[in-house]
């Protein structure tokens, strides 16, 4: 049995999402943290209740996610949560780190019905961390007390398991997506083709029958995907693309620029971005934008919520938005017997150029927060079911060439990193096997491309 030292204790589906999120955030920050999260750590054939109870009694730290239903069946001796909690309490060396939903008050829970005063003091002695929902929960609140509990220096651990939020200029990240990077340029063309059949029915539904639309594309790259989606549409009057990388802007204007199509260099996170955008609108005779298009940009921003707030200022009353981004929490590879696919995808969180890997889950909250209406979750990803062999080959290349290229780019910037060297060697050794397994008829793969639409 693996030697775990942290146990995730929670009840029902409403807490399971948060538990999974916490697990993913913490599991790779330091090899000394061995976290037991049942969905990831129980093997086929194991007795679920027996293993949970045994591990709970052996760890030195239990993270307890407590909602208003947590203690509802705690008096039932056969209840798995009751077994986990009581098993941990028998271990006098185990500490408890409670995470409470906002509707829970220990003073009103009457824990004395179920536990001794000593046990209650152990469960509640640390000031509980509060959460509203998984989308806004800051796992950094857990990180420091956990590291302190195990005597681990903050300086010695890795960053956020999902990748760090950072400005596009951080560590020269923007250069990776420049037209100078021919490998990424070719891969993006493959991605453009792969996602076309998923994007176009949504675009058709949104803009068919409209006319004289002014469309703004944020994070437009070299303009190829933007023009592929909108360049020939009769409903469109003006197309404006904003891109951080100057070389991409030059190439976009050379390839597509016209009286009705223009591309500009701009930093969407700059304080004066809206002022700059209004100048561009005046230059092009645009009073307001009728459609905002944002593809794969949000994971490369320091403060994506602010962009969705301020962009409304330049939109018409009936404007719409199409926004697509990734969320690695929706990635599924099966069968993945030795965990190779999970390991390969986890490489992305170590690569600055890959951005924040769980951005997709935040989109609804941001849209709702800033007053967008008719919010619709159009897709949660794409999968291999029903794909032709050629489509599967393209799908594999889009995802795993990105892993390969990001890792290479990261290693070029950190040539002395032993971890990056080790991962590079492993990926090169495993790449052909990954591709063979991916292409097998019985293999299932789902990747989290999330698409939302809304009225602005």
Structural class: alpha/beta
**Which consecutive residue ranges, at least 5 long each, have pLDDT under 50?**
none
Strand content: 15-25%
Query: Mean pLDDT score, rounded?
Result: 88
Q: In which order are the strands of the major sheet placed?
A: 8-7-6-9-10-15-12
Strand element count: 15
Query: What would the principal axes of the Cα set say about the shape?
Result: globular
Q: Provide a count of the helices.
A: 17
Helix content: 40-55%
> First CA to last CA: what distance?
53 Å
Write the layout of secondary structure elements.
Blueprint: E1 6-9, H1 12-26, E2 35-36, H2 38-41, H3 48-56, E3 61-66, H4 80-90, E4 95-101, H5 106-109, H6 117-124, E5 129-131, H7 140-149, H8 173-176, H9 182-207, E6 213-218, H10 224-230, E7 236-243, H11 246-256, E8 261-265, H12 273-283, E9 289-295, H13 304-310, E10 315-326, E11 332-334, H14 340-346, H15 363-369, E12 373-379, E13 382-383, H16 389-413, H17 418-439, E14 444-447, E15 449-455
Parallel strand pairs: 1-2, 1-3, 3-4, 4-5, 6-7, 6-9, 7-8, 9-10
Antiparallel strand pairs: 10-15, 11-14, 12-15, 13-14
Description:
There is one protein chain. The strands form 3 sheets. This protein has a 7-stranded mixed beta sheet, with helices on both faces. The longest helix has 26 residues, at 182-207. β6, α10 and β7 (236-243) form a beta-alpha-beta unit. 41% of the residues lie in helices and 18% in strands. By secondary structure, it is an alpha/beta fold. The model has no long low-confidence stretch (mean pLDDT 88). It is built from 17 helices and 15 strands. It has helices at residues 12-26, 38-41, 48-56, 80-90, 106-109, 117-124, 140-149, 173-176, 182-207, 224-230, 246-256, 273-283, 304-310, 340-346, 363-369, 389-413, 418-439, and strands spanning 6-9, 35-36, 61-66, 95-101, 129-131, 213-218, 236-243, 261-265, 289-295, 315-326, 332-334, 373-379, 382-383, 444-447, 449-455. α3 runs parallel beside α4 and α9 packs parallel to α10 (224-230). The protein starts with 5 loop residues before the first strand and ends with a strand.
């Amino acid at each position: 049995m693996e030697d775990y030292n942290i146990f995730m204790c929670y009840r029902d589906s409403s807490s399971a999402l948060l538990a999974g999120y916490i697990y993913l955030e913490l599991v790779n920050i330091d090899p000394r943290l061995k976290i037991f999260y049942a969905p990831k750590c129980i093997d086929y054939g194991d007795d679920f209740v027996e293993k949970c109870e045994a591990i709970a009694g052996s760890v030195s730290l239990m993270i307890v996610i407590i909602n208003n239903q947590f203690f509802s069946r705690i008096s039932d001796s056969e209840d798995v949560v009751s077994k986990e909690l009581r098993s941990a309490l028998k271990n006098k060396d185990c500490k408890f780190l409670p995470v409470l939903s906002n509707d829970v008050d220990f003073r009103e829970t009457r824990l004395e019905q179920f536990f001794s005063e000593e046990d209650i003091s152990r469960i509640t002695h640390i000031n509980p961390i509060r959460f509203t929902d998984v989308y806004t929960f800051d796992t950094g609140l857990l990180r420091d007390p956990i590291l302190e509990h195990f005597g681990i220096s903050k300086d010695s651990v890795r960053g956020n398991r999902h990748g760090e939020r950072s400005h596009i200029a951080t560590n020269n990240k923007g250069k990776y997506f420049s037209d100078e990077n021919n490998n990424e340029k070719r891969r993006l063309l493959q991605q453009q083709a792969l996602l076309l059949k998923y994007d176009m029915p949504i675009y058709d539904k949104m803009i068919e029958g409209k006319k004289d639309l002014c469309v703004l594309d944020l994070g437009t790259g070299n303009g190829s995907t933007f023009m592929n989606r909108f360049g020939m549409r009769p409903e469109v009057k003006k197309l404006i693309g904003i891109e951080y990388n100057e070389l991409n802007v030059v190439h976009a204007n050379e390839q597509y620029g016209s009286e009705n199509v223009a591309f500009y260099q701009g930093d969407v996170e700059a304080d004066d971005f809206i002022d700059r955008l209004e100048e561009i609108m005046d230059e092009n005779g645009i009073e307001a934008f009728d459609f905002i298009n944002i593809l794969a940009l949000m994971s490369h921003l320091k403060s994506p919520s602010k962009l969705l707030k301020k962009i409304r200022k330049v939109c018409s009353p009936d404007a719409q938005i199409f926004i697509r981004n990734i969320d690695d929490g929706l990635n599924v590879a099966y069968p993945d017997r030795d965990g190779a696919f999970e390991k390969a995808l986890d490489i992305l969180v170590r690569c600055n150029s890959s951005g924040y890997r769980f951005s997709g889950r935040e989109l609804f909250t941001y849209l709702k927060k800033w007053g967008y209406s008719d919010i619709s979750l159009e897709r949660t990803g794409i999968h291999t079911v029903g794909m032709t062999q050629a489509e599967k080959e393209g799908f594999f290349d889009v995802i795993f060439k990105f892993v390969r290229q990001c890792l290479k780019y990261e290693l070029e910037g950190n040539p002395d990193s032993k971890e990056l060297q080790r991962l590079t060697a492993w990926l090169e050794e495993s790449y052909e096997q990954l591709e063979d397994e991916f292409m097998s008829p019985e293999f299932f793969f789902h990747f989290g491309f999330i698409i939302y639409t809304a009225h602005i």
